[in-house]
Amino acid sequence: VLADFRAAHPRDQPSLNVTAFVVVSPEARAELDKSCLVGRGWWNDDWWELAAASGLMDIANHSWDHHHDALPARMKTGARRGTFRSIGTRRLADHEIRQAATYLRSRSPNRGAELFAYPYGEANRYLVSDYFPRNGADLRIIAAFTGRAGFLSQKTNRWAVPRFIFGRDWKSPAGLDRILEGAGAKD
User: What is the CATH number of the domain that holds 24?
Assistant: First the structure.
């Protein structure tokens, strides 16, 4: 779709790009493919490098294993699963964020690796106020996105960036248009 748009409108939006936030662990994706999809191997990373090389899509960090509650017991870290709010220690944050950042950069180096999206949209005080401010530069992550709806402003904390989510914040092109018009009104 993006390549078709670029071909049809070469002068419009020359830096057009989307970002896919991915669960990075190959083992977790394989397990989730079986338990949450249909077990066809669709949740893989075969497409990451080609997508990033296209210049139309970046691949970004959505954690090592999404701290997903459908993962088998052998993959559990001891913290409550099914929420990212339980990532409240350096050990857990390194497991979910640092490990993912390292693997993502080795598998698909691209500018999207500078971004992180909290699983379930859930940030917590430790990650926003301690872990990322202390470790962001070393991780080479420049911003983290929450699931809170809102516009970017000068006061936005780069470790708690709001975003609008399809299905919750808009359900149609007209709904997205209203959000975009609202962004223009903020200027």
Answer: 3.20.20.370
